[in-house]
């Protein structure tokens, strides 16, 4: 055990008694009491997001707060502090090893969700995203930046944060918070921890030389610990030490236990699945994704009356420099990276254009894909439009105005874009993988293809084009897509079950 984490006997007994009272005194935590949950995340769309984690971090705690006292912990990035409003300092967290001291601030969202913010300008007061600088390069001190997040989460759970509140359970998300469960384990504290894997490909791997800076005991640098092919892995630490693992779709939970999707962690994840400690819970989308009320749309509509889609399609065509016509409109709203199958979408564009279709692309990512898309638009003026970057209004109007969303991801843990598209009456054409397989019913509310190859993708596109030519079938599929359950209620209930199991198992 790390020397600086030694607890005196009285505090250790007090901590354990508190946790046992919270977790064990009632047979059903979700019904009979409001347990305290700390949701630890590196992004939240209220203030800053780099991907789907930001959306989930905003929506899931809100879905859970009817049953729990849920609070969020996030680093105090420059973008967060510029938007969050008044922040009250409630604690000072001391330095440990190479991890600097920081203040713990408490603030509140407009709808009353309490957010704890780590106030540490030397780590977080920077331009760029949560993970990279303005040039897209990883911050060289990301290990320290996110070890600070994990250590703070462990401190709050241990009763060393807000003096008026402590967490009974930590809900961790992806590698940036993965060390929290490890710090608790090294302290000998049995506080339940849930780790949700949103994308296994991002692991937070750092050099072994960083062990002492991060406060990781030498004994933990082992295959039964944080060691991963000679490096320190924050994600592996979270998987190894957490009470329970979830990921964001049932299909992805199965896929990551196999070598082709497991990113080197399939053996450990297979063991967790065999122990009953790995679950797949599909994400939902929040209530703002409603075409009958969305303020970004130029014309609103519903499943019963989709006539407003035409006005949104015309808006998209004008915005992307496309010719105004009544042919099928395809959309791509995506990070421009290999995982998302952007190369397949580029290669399939000729087929779409030759059949009278148009494509609007929006996103940013790898420079080679950005350049290829610009060249593609140059070869097909009026038929293909491209915007490098991201704009929320553009994206929502694209979902609302398009007939089809192209989503040929090679792997997709959950995916939100296909659900946004369905809710707005755009039929996704997607690879049968991960959450895409769990949310799209082939031929009913979208189209799936079984192999991430150009030929199989083109076959699915042709099926979509055939459907477009059959007005009655197109309308029926649109309605089915729009009426598919998209909310968080069912997923929140699944998380309640996981919380209860983890809590009881911690003190069995």
UniProtKB/TrEMBL annotation:
Reaction equations catalysed: [(1->4)-alpha-D-glucosyl](n) + ADP-alpha-D-glucose = [(1->4)-alpha-D-glucosyl](n+1) + ADP + H(+)
The keyword Glycosyltransferase appears for this protein: yes
Binding site for ADP-alpha-D-glucose: 49
Pathway: Glycan biosynthesis; glycogen biosynthesis
InterPro entries assigned: Glyco_trans_1 (IPR001296), GS/SS (IPR011835), Starch_synth_cat_dom (IPR013534)
Residues covered by the Glycosyl transferase family domain: 326-475
Classification via SUPFAM superfamilies: UDP-Glycosyltransferase/glycogen phosphorylase
Keywords: Glycogen biosynthesis, Glycosyltransferase, Transferase
Pfam hit, one: Glyco_transf_5
Taxonomic superkingdom: Bacteria
Domain Starch synthase catalytic as annotated: residue spans: 37-270
Keyword hit for Transferase: yes
The EC number(s) this enzyme carries: 2.4.1.21
A GO MF term: alpha-1,4-glucan glucosyltransferase (ADP-glucose donor) activity
The protein's role, per its UniProt record: Synthesizes alpha-1,4-glucan chains using ADP-glucose.
Family in the record: Belongs to the glycosyltransferase 1 family. Bacterial/plant glycogen synthase subfamily.
Protein name per its UniProtKB record: Glycogen synthase
